[in-house]
Every structure is written in structure tokens, then in C-alpha cells.
Amino acid sequence: MASSNKVYADFTSLVGKSSRGSKSAADPYGYDQAIASGSISSMSLAHGKSDEEGDMALRAKKGWEVAMGPGKTLPMQAFMAWMSGTGVSIFSILITGMILMTPVKTIMSTQQTFAPLERAGKGAKKLDLTMQKAAFVAINIAGLIFGIYRLSIMGLLPTASSDWLSFIPAKQFMEYSA
Amino acid sequence: MLGSHSLTHAALAAVLAVSSFSMTVQGLFPDEAGRIDWYRAQIGVPKSIVAHTQEDRSTNILTITDRNVLASLNPDNGEIAWRQLFSPTERINALKVRGSLALTHSGGNETHVRVWDAQSGALAWGYSQPPSPNYQADSGAVEFLRKSQDVLAIVGDSLVRLAPNPSKPVWELALNGTASYKRLVVQDNVAFIIGDAVLSKKQPKARLHVVEVSLKTGRVKQQYDVNTERSLGSSSSVVLESKEYGGYILWRDDKNIVWNIHRLGMQEPMWDIYHAKLVQSELMPVDMLTSTLGELDADPGLIADKPRFTLTYTKDNKVKTVVVEMTHANDKLELRKVVGFRSDNAIIAGSGGATLPSSGASQTERAVVAVRTSGAVSWRVYGSNKTPTHSGELAYDAATYGPVTAASLYYVGGDPRVLIQTSGGLVAALAPGSNAPVWFRDESLTHATDMTFLELPAPASSAEHAAKATDPSVLASPVTRYVLRWVETAKSLAAWPASGFGLFGSSSDTEPGSGSQSTLEALVPTAPLTEGDHFGFRKLSIFGTSTGVVAALSTQSGARSWTRYLADNGTAVTVERVFITRRSQPLANTPSLLTVVGRNTYGNSVVVVLDALTGEILGDGGIHVLPFNHVKVFELPTTEKTTEQQLLGLATGGSEPRLAIWPATAEAAKAFCALPESVFFDLGALAGSSQLRGYRAECPTEAELDPWKESSAFLPSRSWVFDLPEGEVLLASSEYHGAQTTALLGRVLGDRSVLYKYINPHLVTLASRRAAGGIGIYFVDRVSGRLLYSAVHESASVSDKQPFLATQSENRIIYQLWQDSTPVGGSTEGAQPRSKGYVTVVAEMFESDKPDTRDESKAFSSFDLKLPHVITTAFMAPEPATALGVTRTGSQITTRDVLFGLSSGKLLSLPDQLFDPRRPKKSPTKDEQAEGLMPYMPSLPLDPKRVLSHANVVAGIAHIKSAPTHLESTSLVASYGLDLFFTRTSPSGTFDQLSPSFSKVNLVVTTLALVVGCLLGGPMVRRKLTNQAWA
Questions:
Q1: Which residues in chain B are closer than 8 Å to A160, comparing Cβ atoms?
Q2: Are the Cβ atoms of B681 and A178 closer than 8 angstroms?
Q3: I need a labelling partner for B837 at 20 to 30 A (CA). Which of B170, B562, B919, B1011 fits?
Q4: A172: which chain B residues are within 8 Å (Cβ-Cβ)?
């Protein structure tokens, strides 16, 4: 919402500047002062209803592209992980940290990522992007699982009995002997 | 303003933090030989002392000791000039000195004669006589021949004449077991050997058998019996030797007042009669009947003429001693009084003084010393006059080392030195005109039987001491104490810059340096050590000895803190065990208690409770002689409520053992009966028996506990008997010592699975001799009597020379055996490859052979039917060990080192990982590599870098003990036996300490530079930011 306002604010300032500045250069060809400074209504007046549907479809398509985006980075991450090896070193830890943190951060910002696509402008009809979001989250979870798998092959997950050895209380001796 | 304020605070905090480091980095250098360790060479308590004067008139003291050491001491300071250690099984019987040569006779049936260079201690030559079936016990003597380098010796059952470097004797005379020969009298052409004749029913009375032998041929000239009715060495007979007049035996018959004198070799008449009244006119017949005769000189052959002896008698309740000299006048034997003096409670000794070969015996060297032993130790030296030539006194408290038991006299540049020995094991040299000894040697610890560490209270600050006096409630909470310490630190910080920031300060360790105990240390320690250090390096090591001495030494410097001599009815208590039964809290008023358990001469159990810090004997009775004799003493896991004293259990032997407790009070008995766990005990592996018995303590009803006396005891029930297989005999046993702490309950394998350790504090290792040969090893549970594991070492053997040694820690048992698999008769068919040497065997016990398999129960009971899975392996030991031990740290997080006391006098520390029985014998798999297992190597390395004793020769290590310090990385190690060696070691490196190269100055300078940078840079940055905001 805020971004669409900003777009208009820029155009308004343009208008203001041109009206104020007598020294400003002549308008470029094809520039229509009315359109540039016009309201949404003038915009909507300019487009037909079919245009709006096409825009929705376009945005839904764009939504799928955004949702599939993290999937494209997965092979790259896998390659980096393979290159850095399974030993515990600063480099492999950094890469594993990145592999783990990126999906988490991305999942947290799912709403922001899809917000520009959901509504074209202020008061515009909201596009339902649930499927795209679900796919987006699922792919990121896959990335996270890959990160966890990597942790486990690096031996950093407390899955072995040896990891819990220090927490086992020593046995009490029932008898005393000397 | 606020910002700069907080910066100042930060700087102050940094400075405080830095100043707190200044306490934590002293003396922690890992390789500071002689600074972190101390060493004391010892010789044992002298049996015979001969002062040896050399051609250049310098004197050395030669001595043989009860720890089988031949040593030469510097007469000026008592330091060891050289020493020769004999095998523990080869007793040194006699020492003779002639000129620059010393002669020793050692061993029993298998006898060794050795000639040493008295100056350097080098072996000139030696001779060994193989054992003989006719050998008579205690027989043996040795003597130089006159005007010859040859030696005459009674060895085994033979008399031999030995020339230097003998491959065989010049001649050998078989004695056929006719007597137990103990004395040799050498004349120019013949020698007499005198022995106690073998008693028979026909001739039940003691008599001496004399054999005259030709020195040239070794033939018997004559042999006969002298019916003295006295044996050699009795207090009514002496043997006199004279170059000119021959040898004599002089004795007094029982209930007879006259002396009989037999001239050796003269059978007609067999003896003459002599009246003692001719020597001392005041002697009355009644005094004569109780009189005793004594020999004066340790080496009578040295005083070639005028042999002498003492006559001691009591007249009018006064003890008097007369020195009698033998002379000849007109070819007639005459006995002459040299000097007489009062000798109540005195020890009389002659100057066993070796004479100069050229000048012969001078009058001073024929002097006699009388040392009074009751009350203050005073001594007088008599020449030929009734008035003493020299006298002196020693400020000595017999409660520290016991009464004086022996004395000898020697001269240093014409000045007499009196050497005294006490029953506790102190040797001191006294000189006229001083009431402190010229030097002394504390040899009591060569007889140490047990040792324990006492944690000393951490040094309390002066503020804490002040608070104790004014407001003790401050000390109750650790928080207030911490605040108190900070306040004091802050105060001392003000003085810190003035002291040059601690850069030029001296070390806070004010204890006297280690090194030879000599003239530096006071005989009686002036101030006992009562405060430890911040790291627990300085503790007291409290020793109990079989000579009755209990002594506390600083573990850091070896300085004696206190010594106490325990005696019952005038005889030393043989101390067997020492226990710390109460540990005092810092600044508390109740002292730490030391309970000493021993035996008196009758075998009765003796218990003494002492203040562990001062050595003061506590309680009204002092020494408690109990009406039974124990076979085993052990700690019980409970305390008496009022005194907070830990209970000790004393088990008596026999078919129906009883269990007494100490303190012997009704309250202690109730505390014992209130124990939640049942108490089991065994009576120890009695060498020679073929079974081990286990007992369970039973409690009677509470009413029966009430009149509890020292003689009261529980009647335990026998719960099991462990019988060895037919024909096997128990040799030795080993058990855990002290509470076992375990940091990790399992072994983490390469695949991150866990093999769980089998930890059983009740495990006892038994070694037995099998009928078919070889050694059987049994791991037995002491509670249930169950056999947990057994092994057979078919070609192993255990003897005095090759003892069975074992050490147990956590789930690992390490033992060492002598193994000789050389086939008898030389046939090698079908036999194992020949191997001969010491073998170190390691057995590690796990709950299961499968990883991640564990008994999940929270409690361990020996009655569960689970058996451990035991993995074993064996290594070749680089050198025979005399003692085994393991380092101990506070939480056992640090890896352990296995400690070996080697017969070559080294204290070797090898890492625990070397002894891992899981070390792969083939090339290691990935998992084994991940686990960090080293490939198996059959022999253990003798790495010089791992020799803790570095250049010191720590002779006769019999025990190795270890104690944790407050630093988890560091462990105190103490070894004792003959020599003492204490050190500290960090098996995993000093991970919790700053390295010695850490520069505190750099840290301070860097911190200060940063603080200054912040103070200067802060306003500048703020100004810049403000300017930017306006731009």
C-alpha cells in the first residue's frame, strides 16, 4: 500500500515542480500531464474490466514464480554444502548456518514477499495467493530439512546415545563393602 | 559525562580482574624440575656403623641398614656420599672395613661376599655361594685376612678363602651343618670359626662349637665343643680377639659369679676361671649374679690388640659400667679395668673407629661413649679416666622419634661425634658444646606402611581472621565471605602501584626449600603447616611407619610439619593404617582428626586419635589398646553424630570374626546400625590360604547397643566363601582405594555409540598360584562372592623378586606379572613362541559387549545377575616395576596417567590411552580412527620425557599415591618406599592455567591503552556525529 502511494507521491511532486518551475524544460513527447497526475479513478477509467482480470492472472503467475524462487537456489546450496565437506570447520559451519537460516528468514517474511502481488493498489481487489504461499513455505521447509540433514551428517545433532552420556546419573550402590 | 563515568568503572573492573590473575599464576610451570617436585634419598635405619678414616685422614661413615643399603655418609653433614642398594630379599649381615676396602656379607643360604672401594662405592669384586642343603639358619661371617687382600667367609654351609676377583675360592671347607657359625677369629696362620652347636635331645644345653682351620690349606686342625651354656651374642658372653695373644671366649655361667675364659684352640685346660672382683673391687657376689657382659666395638678385628668389653652391674640401685681391657703380663692373661662410670639408662658404645693403617689405634679412638636415654639425651665420652673427656646434651623430645636405642662414636679432626639412633628411625650426629645435632637424618619413612593426604584449609585473608574474632556470623555465608575478600582485595589494590605492580614482588611461597635434610632444618619443626594454598598443591602427607612414627610432611616442599612417636608400654606401636576421620571446615574450631590404627608388641589392636594439623594426641586415654587383634581395618560410610568423626571398622580373624567399630561408643554403634546400605567385608587374601570369605555385618536390637565398650563388637554372618580351584593358593589381592569418581559412564565409540562402563566398587582382584604352574587371576565381587571374570597365565610366576602388582581405577584393572614361556627341557614343539619378561595386562570391563546396551536401573546391586563384558590385552613392560598407581583428579574429567615405579629408580607416567585394550591389532577402521585408538604395539614405551622423577634415582618405590588438587588438570603424585619423591602432573596438559609465558604486563598495558583510547576518542566521535547532524 505504502509503495503504491509513494509512486503517486513522486508523480505529484513532478507535477508540482513543473507547475512551479517556469524554467523547466518542455514536456517530453507522449507525456500527458493529465495521466501522470491523474487519480486511480482516471486510471481505472482508462482501462477496461478485462484488463483487470488479465492483471490478476499475471500476478498469480508472478506469485508462482516467486514461490518457486527458493527451489532454484536449493541445488546451488547443495553444491556448496558438498564442497565445504562434512567436517566441522568454520567454513562448513558458516554454510550450514546459511542453509539453515535462509529458509527460516524467508518463511518469516512470506507475507511481505507476496504483499505487492496480492493487491495491485489501494482499494484494489485482493488476489488469493494461498497455494503459492503454501508452495513457497514447503520449498523453504525442504531447504530447512536439507540443512538439518546436513547437521546430522556433520554429527552436530544430538541423536546418538553418546550425546546424552553426560546427563545419565551415576548408579547408586545398594551395598557397601570393604 | 555519564559515558566517561561508566568507562572509568570499566577500567577499574579491568584492573581488578587483572590483579586477580596475579594470584593464579605462580609456580605452574610444567617442566620445572626441582620446583614442582622434591626428592629425598634415604638409606634406612643403620644396623651397623663403622667410621672409616682414610689415608688423607678424612673420615667417612660406612653403614649397613635394615633396608638393605650399604651407604657412605659424609660425617660433617650426614649426606649420602654413595649408596649401594641390595635386593630386598638379600639381607646384608655384616660389614667390615680395612683400609680403603669395605667388605659385606649378604643373603641367606645363597650367600654373597662383596668387596667395595670405600671411597667411591665401586664394587671391587664379589663372590656368590650357591645354596646348600646343610645350611644352618643365621650362619655366616666374614673377615679380611691379615697382611693379605684375601677374605675368609662363612658362606652357606662352607668356609671359603677368597682371593680378589675369584672365579672359585682358594679353598673351600664344607661345614656339614655342624653348627650355626656366626663368628670368625682370624690369626696369622689359623682361623677359628665359632658357632652355636645344633641342640639335640641328648645335649639340650647351649654350647659353642669351635673349628680351627689352617689358613693355608683349609684343613681342619681340630674341632671341639665348649660347654658355655651360653649362645653367641648372649649378654653373658663375649668373644675377644687379639693379634698377639689369640682369641678368647669369656662367659659367666648362670648362677655363678666367676668368669670362664677359654682360649681358642686350647683344650687342655678347656677354660680358666677369673674373678671379676679383680677388675672392679667394689663388686659383691650378689651384684655379679645380675651383671651383664657386652662387646664394645662394631668391628673388633680393627682393634688389633688389647681387646675390650664392658661389664655392667647394679649396685645400690645404681647402674655402673666398667670397660675391661685384656692384656698379657708375663705370658699370663690379665684383665684390666680401663674406666668405670655410672650408666643408668645408658647405651655404651666404643669408637668402632677404623684406625689409620699406618698409625694404629690412638687413645682417643679407643674412647667409649655413654649416652643416657631417659629424660634429656646426655652423653659423655671417656678415655682412660674417670672424668669424661667430652660431654654434651641434646634438646630432644622422645615423643617425636622415640627413645635412643643405639649409639656410636667417631672422630672428625680429633673432635668426637656421637651418632645416636632412636627407635623411631632418627639418626643424629652430636658434637660437644651444642644442644642441637650437627646433622640428622629422618629415616623413619623408609618403614612407611601407609600414607594419606590431608587437605589443608585454604589461606584465609586477614579480614576473615578479623571477622572470626569479631563477628563470626559473616563467615557463615559464602556470599559475605566473598564480599569480605573483595573488600580486602580492593584495599590491597591501593598499595599495588607502590609495589611496582607486583612485578618485583617475591613469591608467596615461604616454605623452606627442598633438598637434603641436614643442618638447615630444625630437628623439631617449629611451626606446623596449617594453611594450604589456593590450588590445593600444598597438602599434608601423613605417614604411618612400622617404627611407631607418624609424620606429616608438606607435599610441596617435603618439610616436616610434625612427627609423633607412638609407643605402648615403652615399645613402638607398629602403625598399619592412617585415616583422616574428620575434615575441618576453614576457620572452624574443630580440628581435623587423624586416626591411626596399629598393633602393639603383643599383637593387640591400637587406636590413636591425633589432631591432624598439629600431631597432638587427643582424648584422655591417648593410646587405646583394644582387647583384640584386627586383621583388617576399613572406613565406614557414616559418622558419629556428636563428634562428626568418621567410623572405622576393625574386623578380627578366626573362624568367627567379629566387627568392632571406632569410636567405640553407643552413638557410633547406632550410627552404624542406621546405615541404609548393608555393609559387607572380606578378611583379605591371606597368603597361603585357598579361599576368601565374605561377611555381612548384622545389627542387634537397639537396646543391646547401649552399654557399648571398647571390647564390644558386632557378630557378622558369613555370607559367602570363594574357594579357589583344587590345589591353588592365594598369593595377593588388589582392590579399589578410596571413593571412585567417574566423569563419563561410558566409552564413546567412533560411530558415536556408547559402550557403558561396568563400575563395581566391590571388585577384588585375586592372584593365585596354580598347582599345574602358572598364575590364576580372579575378579571377585566382595558383596556377593560371585566370580566376575577369571584368567590363567600359564607361564607366569610370582615371587619376592617378581611380585604381583595391580592397580584398579574406574572399570580398568592393570596388573603386572613375570612371564617365562621358555619350554622346560628345551623342546619347542607345539609350544608358543618363547617369551620371557614382565607382562602388563589390562582388563577393561563393560556392561555389555554391544554398544548402547545398558542396564537402565538407577541402582547397582551386586546381587543382580549381570556379568561384565571384559576386554583384555597385554603389553611387554619395558622394565620391572616395583609399584603401580594411577593419577587422580577432582572430577576425573582429565585423562588418567598410569604410574610405574621402576626398579631402576624411575617414576614413569604413561597415558591411559596406551593401555586401552580396544587398541586395534590390525590396521584401524574408520570408526576406530574416529575414536582415536592407537594401533596396538606390543611393548610399552619407556619415553624419557614421561619420567616424572627426571634425573633423580628414586630407589625402592613400593607405593604410589595420588591426590587431586583444586585444579582439574593437575594431580599430586607421591611415591615412597625407600626414597621419597613427590611431584605434580597434568596428564591432559595444564588446560586450566595460564601458560608461564603469558604476559600480565602486556595485558595491563593493552587494557590501559584501550581505556585511554576510549576516553580520548569518545568526545571526538561525539563531536563529529553532532557536526554530521547539522550538515
A1: 751-754
A2: yes
A3: B919
A4: 858-860
According to DSSP H, which parts of B226-382 are helical?
A: 285-289
Higher pLDDT, B70 or B830: B70
Q: Which chain B residue shows the shortest CA-CA distance from A164?
A: B754
User: Model-level pTM?
Assistant: 0.83
Neighbours of B470 (CB within 10 A): 9
State which amino acid sits at residue B751: D
Band (B205; pLDDT cuts 50, 70, 90) = confident
Phi-psi region of B26 (alpha: psi -120 to 50; beta: other; left: phi over 0): beta
The residue length of chain A stands at 178
Question: At residue B192, does pLDDT exceed 80?
Answer: yes
The pLDDT mean for chain B works out to 84
So what's the pLDDT on residue B203?
A: 78
Amino acid B803: pLDDT? 87
d(CA B247, CA B567): 41
- Tens digits of residue pLDDT in B370-404: 888 877 888 988 887 788 888 898 888 888 899 89
Q: Using pLDDT thresholds of 50, 70 and 90, give the confidence band for residue A16.
A: very low
Q: How far apart are CA B883 and CA B977, in angstroms?
A: 9
B933: CB partners within 8 A, 6+ apart: B913, B916, B918, B919, B920, B924
- The rounded distance, in Å, linking the Cα atoms of A34 and A37 is 5
**Which residue from A minimizes the CA distance to B735?**
A178
Q: What amino acid is encoded at B221 in this protein? A: K
A71 touches chain B (CB under 8 A): no
State whether B637 and A176 contact (CB < 8 Å): yes
ipTM reported for the complex, 2 dp? 0.79
Q: E-strand spans in B475-628?
A: 540-545, 549-554, 560-565, 567-568, 571-572, 574-582, 593-599, 605-611, 623-625
Q: How far is B1003 from chain A (nearest CA, A)?
A: 28
Distance CA B190, CA B223 (A): 13
Q: What is the DSSP letter of B301?
A: G
Residue of B nearest to A178 (CA): B681
Q: Is B649 touching A (CB cutoff 8 A)?
A: yes
Q: Which residue of A has its CA nearest to B737?
A: A178
Q: What is the mean pLDDT of residues B312-340?
A: 85
Q: How do residues B107-147 score in pLDDT, each as one tens digit?
A: 988 999 999 998 899 999 999 999 988 888 888 899 888 88
Please say if the pLDDT value at position B155 is more than 50: yes
Measure B637 CA to nearest chain A CA, in Å.
8
- A158 touches B: beta carbon within 8 Å: no
Q: What angle do CA B111, B115, B119 make, to 5 degrees?
A: 145
pLDDT of res. B360: 43
Closest to B633 (Cα-Cα) out of B668, B685, B598, B593: B598
Bridge partners of B680, per DSSP, are A177, B696
Contact list, B862 vs chain A (CB under 8 Å): 174-175, 177
Q: Does A29 touch chain B (CB under 8 A)?
A: no
What is the H or E stretch that residue A43 is in? Answer: helix A40-46
The beta strands (E) that lie in B629-762 are given as 630-639, 646-652, 659-662, 678-682, 691-696, 717-723, 729-734, 746-748, 754-756
**Residue A75 near chain B (CB below 8 Å):** no
Interface subset of A 93-132, CB within 8 angstroms of B: none
Does the beta-carbon distance from B859 to A171 stay under 8 Å?
Answer: yes
Which residues 679-718 on chain B approach chain A with CB closer than 8 angstroms? Answer: 679-682
Taking the CA of residue A160 and the nearest CA in chain B, the distance in Å comes to 6
* E strands present in B330-376: 332-342, 346-350, 368-372
B362 pLDDT band (50/70/90 cuts)?
A: very low
A170 shares contact with chain B (CB less than 8 Å): yes
Query: For A165, which of B746, B783, B860 is closest by C-beta distance?
Result: B746
